[in-house]
Amino acid sequence: MTAQVLDGRAVAAALLDRVGREVSEFVADHGRVPVLATVLVGDDPASHTYVRMKANRCLKAGMHSHRLTLASSISTETLVHQLRELSDDPAVDGILLQHPVPAHLDERAAFEAIDPAKDVDGVTRTSFAAMAFGEDGFHSATPGGIMALLDAYDIPLAGRHAVVVGRSAILGKPAGMLLLARDATVTYCHSRTADLAARVAEADIVVAAVGRPGLIRGAWIKPGAVVVDAGYADNTGDVEHAAAAERASYLTPVPGGVGPMTIATLLAQTIRAARQHEAARQPSVQPVRGAI
After folding, report:
1. CATH of 31-116, one of 3.40.50.10860, 3.50.30.40, 3.90.1150.10, 3.40.50.1110
2. Is 119 a catalytic residue?
3. Catalytic residue among 121, 204, 229, 238
């Protein structure tokens, strides 16, 4: 068996084409361009690269990217203030705080300063609750991208056993919630899990979300399983790919699998937020008493 590639680049390109059409329609209807504000703290080269990539994708989709770069020495209070200002700015539709932020900052406090209506990266408690309860809201961008990628290949989820390796608040945990909402049976694994190999071997769907190259051995993969590698470190994923490809039915490449879907999901949620903001600005029409 040789795994079929889950081609995130191709699926993301199709999604971004749709986003571009939706942006054009939005501009024609409302006379303004949707705006995604990106907040970058510090001078980490990888973070700068990611923000630049997102800005370029915004431009190609017809959106405006408003970039705010802050010194690594700022306080949590200053960061929270800046994010609240963006939340209050009617010209801004979506807000992305590039993570991780410098270690001295309270990242959770910063995330919670983002208006949930502009949380297009799905990092607030409100967004997580919406994912957990199956309510309308924004998905965490990478887990949301994973779900869109699985759907693009018509991979059934209901009744299947999904093992999520990793429990971060913006990747592992929400990925499990989204799979659970689609009627998969979900097991979370983490650094304290006993016999990780055995847990992975039980999985119909594996989502690797740790950032430790080669953590998931190919020999652990159940024959025919679907493997989504969301880990990334030194241009390598969490899964031992060559060996996993001999056993899995579907497998994401690294790079070119989950990464492109993250950005595409972010922009899809930004145009959705822009439409919701315009709908909220429209005055509600109340019936006139006595009218015929």
Report:
1. 3.40.50.10860
2. no
3. 121
Known catalytic residue at 269: no
Are 255 and 143 spatial neighbours (Cβ–Cβ below 8 Å)? no
> Does 167 appear as a known binding residue?
yes
Asked if CATH classification 3.40.50.720 holds for the domain at 141-258, the reply, yes or no, is yes
Report which residue type is found at 156: P
More confident residue, 134 or 248: 248
Over the stretch 252-266, which tens digit does the pLDDT of each residue have? Answer: 999 999 999 999 999
Q: Does 140 carry a binding-site annotation?
A: no
* Boundaries of every domain in the chain: 31-116, 141-258
Q: State yes or no: is 98 an active-site residue.
A: yes
- How far, in whole angstroms, is CA 113 from its chain's centroid? 19
Task: Indicate yes or no: pTM above 0.85.
Answer: yes
